Each structure stands twice: as structure tokens, then as C-alpha cells.
Description:
By secondary structure, the chain is mainly beta. The protein has one helix spanning 56-63, and strands at residues 7-13, 16-22, 30-34, 37-41, 86-88, 93-98, 105-106, 111-117, 120-125, 130-135, 142-143, 148-152.
Amino acid sequence: MSSTSRRRLKVIVNGKPYTVEVGDLTASPITVNVNGRPYLVNIETARLETVPADEPVVALETVARETSAPEKAPIPTGPAGPQVHQVTAPMPGNILDIAVKPGDRVSYRQRLCSLEAMKMKNAIRSPRDGVIASVEVTEGQTVAHGDVLFTFE
């Protein structure tokens, strides 16, 4: 397919603009360039739909596929981070050290403890601003995925 048969579109997804170049939609896979980055896209012809021109978002949703990295999380407007009440172990491992104690005020992304998993030291960080209500683990303790490490007031 020659580059002259490509079509350039400006697409807005979740408020973010993208420049998309699309070639022959009857080919599969096709190369789709999004903001200059190429992606191979398989289009299932059974899923293509013809829709009225006044519904462009619906038409785009029928062929839109997730490409690579997920979108970045929105920037918090209030206290930093979601208002979660517990911090849980993201993976099984051993608690190497604990950097906070009950009553400590912590900030979003502050290191709470270190967890060794598969011979790697991982910093466990606060998912929000807040005050530590309790520390549920001790140094040297083995934890499983999902075990509660800390709770917030």
C-alpha cells in the first residue's frame, strides 16, 4: 500500500488529542500511526459498523483497540492519592524494614517499608496523604500477596 492511500485523522479520546494515520481498512493487520508511532492493528470486519455521521464517537469506539501503555492516572485535586484505608502487599515476600509507626503523618508516595521479593528490594509507598492508624507487620515477617501491611485513620 502506498503512503498516498493513507488517511490522516485527528481523534480525541478521553479529552486527549491524537493524530492517527490509517491505511486500507480491508487489510489485516494494518499499520496505524498514532502521533507518529506505528501500531499493528487487527480489525475484525464482523465488528465494523456503518453509523450516521453525527455519531462519530460510536464509529471510533467500534474499531478502537487499546494499544500500549495505559493512560496516566488523573492528578489528585484534594489530599494526594485515593482515600484507601489499607495498604496491602502487592506480592509475597519478606518485610525488611518499617519506616513508619502508628500516629505518623505520611504523604502521598512516601516510603512506608521495604519488601524483599525474589531477591529484590521493593519500596512500599503510601497511596495517599494521611495518618497511620496501625502497622500490621513486623520486620522479618513473611507476607502473602494481599496481606494488610498498614491501615490509615
